[in-house]
Structures are given as C-alpha cells and as structure tokens.
C-alpha cells in the first residue's frame, strides 16, 4: 500500500493564515468605528419630529381712526390698546407674544385761513299785519243842511281815507249812499260799491262822486220841514248793495245828526239786526252834534241801531269824518 504524503505546503498554510488575519482585522475595525459611523448618519439626516399643534393667529387690533378735531387745539394721544391674553396651548412651547398696538396720535388741526364776513343780507320788510280783513265799507251820509261840515270833511279827506284803508286792509271796496229827507224829490243818491284798493280807476270814480256831493242836493221840488230823515230808506238801500266776493267783513256806517221817522224806528232797528245775521256783516252809527246841545233822542236811537247791527256807536270826536269812520270799523 502506497504511503500518503503528509508534508504540508508552505504556500497553502500561509495563504490561509493571511486570509484569516485580514478577516479578523476587518471585523475588529468595523466594531471599533461602527458607533461613529452611525452617529454621523443620524446627524446628517435627522428623523422628522412630530408636528406641533396649530396655534390660532392672534389678530392685531386695528388702530382707531383719528377723529375730526373739534377745535383748533391739538387732540391728545389715545391710550395704548390693551392686548388680550394669548392662551398657552399644550405641547406648543412658549406662549405667543401679543403685539402691542402703539398709541394713535391725532394731528394738530391746521389753523384755517380767516374767512371774510359774508355780505350783509338785504333787509326784507316783514309782512304787513292788517287791522282789518278784506273789507267792504258802505258810507251812508246825511246831506241835509245841518251836515255841511261833514260833507266838506269827506271831500277834503277822501284821498287820505283811501290811503289809510290801504294800510289797514289787504283789499277794500267802498260804496256810498247820500240821503236827505223822505219828502225830497230825490232822497237817495248812490255810488255802487267798487273795489278801491290797488291800481284801479275806481278810486278816481269814487273821488269824483264825493266831490260832487252837496247839501240839499236831492231836494228838487220837495221840502224838508221836520227833523227826522230818510234813515230807513238809506239803510235798506245800503243793505241791498252788492258786495265783493273777496270781502270778509262788510260794514255799513250811518252818519247823521237825527233819528229816523218815529214810525220807522223799529223797522230801522230790525233792518240793522237782519244785516248782522250774515257772517261778517255789521251796522255802525256815527252821531254828529250839529246844534251844540246833544240830541238825546238821536243818540239813543243810533245806539240801538248799532247794538242790533253788531257794530260800533261813535260820537263825533272833532269834525274829521275819516277818524269817525275808522272808529266805526273797530
């Protein structure tokens, strides 16, 4: 039997030993440097931490608008706005800082340029305040021989009467009845009521009628032997005279120095009362003392007529017929 060769190869054992040593050295080096390599990897690529809970944004309060300066002086600064306490949320770290709103400073209002005074407004006359409303006046004048002074007074004052009534009434009309005794051929002479106020030719017509008046103008072939006059006829004629639609007051003024005929006294008073029944209508009387001694009968009669007619009783105060007429209108 052939004997095996038990001789070891130097090359073979040496190579195996070399490989084993190298492997051991690698393992040893790996074990030594592994912690450092791991730490470096963690440093370069850290693991993302879980997200923090969302914190609601605290609104920044708006600064108040600067008010309009009421005067020229500077407006003091507003106090700083107080910031609400911001809540601390869990796991959110430190509380959120609240912003502080700075105080608002109002600017000083500039001094305006001086404004010149406005031009003076024209003086406007206040509206007229009239003593009487729209007026119709009927003058019933005795033109017998004893009334010459009153006839002359009316002629002299006719223009003044119209001017005064223009100041006292917004509009007026005038009618007239001149009367005498019932036995005269023409006891009554009439000027129909017309508007005299304003730019009208009626004023000239009325002036012409007055200037044509005269005492005893209607006697003609008649006679006048007793004191009473045609009072009732004159009053009835005035009551029938048409007036103006615009008139709010209508006044008949009986101017005489004598009463009506005895049998016509009651009828005269009743006629005055009928006139007064209409709204705004009245009868006034003016007693003229032509003898120096008062005529008590005439005064008492005229007072009764004025009372029944809702008007004024006027005793002659000095000869001006215009004054007497104005007093009778009150």
Can you characterise this structure?
This protein is of the alpha/beta class. The chain has a domain at 135-329: Rossmann fold, CATH 3.40.50.410. The protein contains 7 helices and 6 strands; from the N terminus they run H-E-H-E-E-H-H-E-H-E-H-E-H. Strands 3-2-1-4-5-6 form a 6-stranded mixed sheet, sandwiched between helices. The model has no long low-confidence stretch (mean pLDDT 79).
SSE blueprint:
Layout: H1 10-44, E1 135-142, H2 148-168, E2 172-179, E3 188-195, H3 202-211, H4 231-240, E4 249-256, H5 265-276, E5 281-287, H6 296-308, E6 310-315, H7 321-329
Parallel strand pairs: 1-2, 1-4, 4-5, 5-6
Antiparallel strand pairs: 2-3
Brief digest:
Helix content is 33%, strand content 14%.
Instruction: State the low-pLDDT regions, or none.
Output: none
Sheet of most strands = 6 strands, mixed
Order of neighbouring strands in the sheet with most strands: 3-2-1-4-5-6
Give the number of helices. 7
CATH superfamily of the domain at 135-329: von Willebrand factor, type A domain
Mean pLDDT across every amino acid position? 79
In the CATH scheme, what's the topology name of the domain at 135-329?
A: Rossmann fold
The number of distinct β-strands equals 6
Shape descriptor reads rod-shaped
Structural class: alpha/beta
The Rg value, from CA coordinates, equals 63 Å
CATH class call of the domain at 135-329? Alpha Beta
The CATH architecture category of the domain at 135-329 equals 3-Layer(aba) Sandwich
Strand content: 5-15%
End-to-end distance: 187 Å
Q: What series of H and E elements makes up the topology?
A: HEHEEHHEHEHEH
Helix content class: 25-40%
